[in-house]
Design a protein that fits this description.
- The protein contains five helices and eight strands, in the order H-H-H-E-E-E-E-H-H-E-E-E-E.
- It has an eight-stranded antiparallel beta sheet with strand order 4-3-2-1-5-6-7-8.
- Helix 3 runs antiparallel to helix 5.
- The two termini are 33 Å apart.
């Protein structure tokens, strides 16, 4: 196989920048199971802890692995009352929350999605758990083919990871698939 010079340059630039030309792999159910074993605070509680530190409407929350043996944490992104995008970190063991970054003025797409949503991210997570019991791992206010929806990723008792799409007005599950 012969590589073109432009391909070689791109690969070299990505490797020097620390980025990879290959996509990151999703966690397996076993990896999610191991990660959730150390979790004391649920996803919905993490959002509430974050909102106590920085008031706003949550648009994204993800369970993340702590670096170098640190406790797992939730990365929570919310839109403040003054339309700023704020990223917080919530310790998944203690519930301690702190602002990680204020990204400044929120993108217009976030305002549109929040306007389309009649239920909160926490209500969407609760609706997902009621429809398909499991441990919520990630949730976000998203767009699916141009239509606002909530996306919730869950670890089921049978160790399958499921992705659910929910209606932003009612919380009804509109689609579910294995991750």
């Amino acid at each position: 196989m012969r590589l073109r010079p432009s391909t070689l340059l791109l690969s070299a630039a990505l490797s020097l920048s620390g980025l990879s030309a290959t996509p990151a792999l999703a966690k397996s159910a076993a990896e999610w199971l191991a990660l959730t074993g150390a979790v004391q605070i649920g996803l919905s509680q993490a959002v509430e802890k974050a909102q106590a530190v920085a008031p706003g409407k949550a648009i994204d929350v993800e369970l993340e692995e702590g670096k170098k043996g640190a406790a797992p944490y939730y990365s929570v992104t919310l839109i403040s009352p003054v339309n700023e995008e704020i990223k917080l970190r919530v310790n998944a063991s203690t519930g301690d929350a702190a602002v990680e970054e204020n990204k400044g003025r929120a993108e217009g797409k976030h305002a549109k999605r929040l306007a389309d949503a009649r239920i909160t991210l926490v209500q969407a997570v609760d609706a997902a758990v009621a429809a398909l019991p499991g441990k919520p791992l990630e949730a976000q206010l998203d767009s699916d083919w141009g239509k606002t929806s909530y996306k919730v990723k869950m670890l089921r008792a049978d160790q399958t990871v499921m992705k659910l799409r929910l209606d932003p007005a009612t919380g009804a599950v509109t689609r579910q698939e294995k991750d």
